[in-house]
Amino acid sequence: MTSSMRNRWAKPPAGSSSPEAAPAPDAATDTFTHVPTTPRSFRPPRTAGTFRAARTSPNLPGGHGRAVATAALLLPCLLATVHPAQADEGPKREEEPKPPAVMSTVGGEQLGKPGTQVRLKAGAPPLPGGLTARSWMVSDAESGEILAAHNPHWRLPPASTLKMLFADTVLPKFRKEKTHKVELSDLAGMGEGSSLVGLKEKYTYSVHDLWLGVFLRSGNDAVHVLSAMNGGKPQTVRDMQAHAKELNAGDTHVVSPDGYDEEGQVSSAYDLTLFARSGLRKADFREYASTAQAKFPGEVKKDKKTKKSKREYFEIQNTNRLLTGDTDLTPYEGTAGVKNGYTTNAGATFTGVAEQGDRVLLVTVMNPSKKEHNEVYKETAKLFDWGFKAANAVEPIGTLVAPGPEGLAVAEEDGAAGGGKNSHQQQAKASVAGDDDSGGGAWTAVGIAGGSVAFLAAAAFAVRRRWPLPDMIRRRPRD
Description:
This protein is of the alpha+beta class and 479 residues long. It has 13 helices and 15 strands. β8 and β9 form a beta hairpin.
């Protein structure tokens, strides 16, 4: 299986570059949002006239006259271009930015501190070495306990991982059977180098097709078409920002629904984990995020024999390498999505979910400084390995807050303790899960006001405490 499959017949829409734009070195086989940059080297103008004059210098015995004349003419040029003070200076290395001294404490006081935060019990495995990401976080998807984190509230460019918020916001609005004929205006405004699934104007696609394009190919063209169906890009941005607020994702500022580099567009490892956790409660979200490959509608061609027109299909593959694997990476055991990303400004970003035994973990990694191939997935796999081994050997450093004012209130009330089991129990009581197969998958806030209500809330949580994730793990093709 090839590492990627692109639509080679589709012309790039207005405002975008070719889908064949070369990705960055650390994401060579992935097609994420990418802004190509071509460095230009300075070359001094040639002095052809000078060289010709040197060759016609006055004659001296043995040809030495020409050499002396040439040297005399070139010496001023050489002296003018040599800079002794800079001769030994190599290329300056860009310093890694440092996290803010003060960050959000949503989910626990310890989460607002810069650097790595973990509470290891006796005998607990140490954190893995070789982690270079600016920010990362390991959490239990079902209980909400945060096992360890590194600058989890650092507001950084999210790249295409922001598509998790886009999907969690827009996916419930349209039935998958609904169809839409793409207009050129739907595709306007995409950034240069955008990743594309290959939509073509005047062709009709189902909503199901479009979501496959979003999740598998990280297609900005599919995002823009769904945004047009949702009332346009500005409306979609407002909807996403409102939903982020509802989820208590206060580090996130949305400028573009596809995650493309835009000034002021930021999120955090904490917020991206909230988006993934919320999305995974929706059956359709789980289906798309865990699909490894699928057939995608192409152009209509006339059969040479029958003379009948027929629409062709081509294969698309998920760019999440923990799900599909790569030449230097095997699929991670128990993984089921969710979303990867890359831009020049954001670097490589990724949020993944994996299930082993009776535990489901979420790991988010943002912008590893080590620029090796698939590095973001390798660091994610290290954190998954550690998390499954250490889950019962660490004290939680915080919690994933529940949506709504109730969830935030509980988090603030327990903030001084920095999380802990009491915090997680309170969060659970504040948010009793609804039917995860319902369209919206919205949380139902429960007021813990009386004994009977508290009992019912606790009982409901006992039944649904572990999020059911049916049919999550899917590496087989989808139609």
